[in-house]
UniProtKB/TrEMBL annotation:
It comes from the Bacteria. This is TIGR02453 family protein.
Length: 226
């Protein structure tokens, strides 16, 4: 049976790792790391089962704890968190889920981190035509209570070919379309944490359904998929 909770021992290990982020210490606690990693893997598998009850998940991934320090000024060898992602199925369902577990810094994230050039242009053209459906989704009380406001980077002025005075220029200027929900340590270590995460991810579906519809059709609403 899959482990469906995150224990205090896992956060204790991450706290100790933050204070002793070196290979000598880590190698001395390798068995403990393997036990904590196994627990988190089980949790992510259990969460994937929850997600698959209301969405189509193509793949999931638990990220390695080892840092790539080749091009970084920070040479500490290990991440001080566990994190993983879930990708939705194929070209029809866009968007993905991310969960970050770290003492004092845990959060769930969803959305579109860096849309490719074609997708970003298509999204902007949709907003140029009409963004009322998206605003209705984002302003729904239940949605807003869980996910707050839209986040992500934006260009400083209107993208080329778009009117800087357009009524939806606040959305058109965006390069990323992200929602974040933070969790306290108490919430993460509670027995209902997996329910809370699944509930939050389920609540993002109206946004994903909207964006999936935009990215699989042209401006006339005709499918662009084969």
């Amino acid at each position: 049976m899959l482990q469906s909770t995150i224990t205090k021992e896992t956060f204790d290990f991450l706290k100790a790792l933050e204070k002793n982020n070196n290979r000598e210490w880590f190698n001395g606690y390798k068995a403990e790391f393997k036990a904590r990693e196994a627990e988190v893997k089980d949790f992510f598998e259990a969460l994937r089962e929850r997600l698959e009850s209301h969405d189509d998940i193509e793949r999931s991934k638990l990220f390695r704890i080892y840092r790539d320090v080749r091009f970084s000024h920070d040479k500490t060898p290990y991440k001080t968190h566990f994190a993983g992602s879930f990708s939705r199925l194929g070209a029809h369902l866009r968007g993905g889920y991310y969960l970050h577990l770290q003492p004092g810094e845990s959060f769930a994230a969803t959305g579109f981190w860096n849309p490719n050039k074609d997708d970003l242009f298509r999204i902007r053209k949709e907003f140029e035509q009409d963004a009322s459906d998206l605003r209705e989704i984002m302003n729904a009380p239940k949605f807003k209570d869980i996910w707050g406001s839209l986040q992500g980077d934006a260009v400083k002025t209107a993208p080329k070919g778009f009117d800087k005075n357009h009524e939806n220029i606040d959305l058109i200027k965006r390069k990323q379309f992200i929602f974040l929900r933070k969790f306290s340590d108490e919430e993460v270590l509670s027995r209902q944490f997996i329910d809370d995460v699944d509930r939050a991810f389920k609540a993002i579906r109206p946004f994903f359904d909207y964006m999936s519809d935009v990215l699989t059709t042209n401006l006339n609403g005709e499918s662009i998929l084969d």
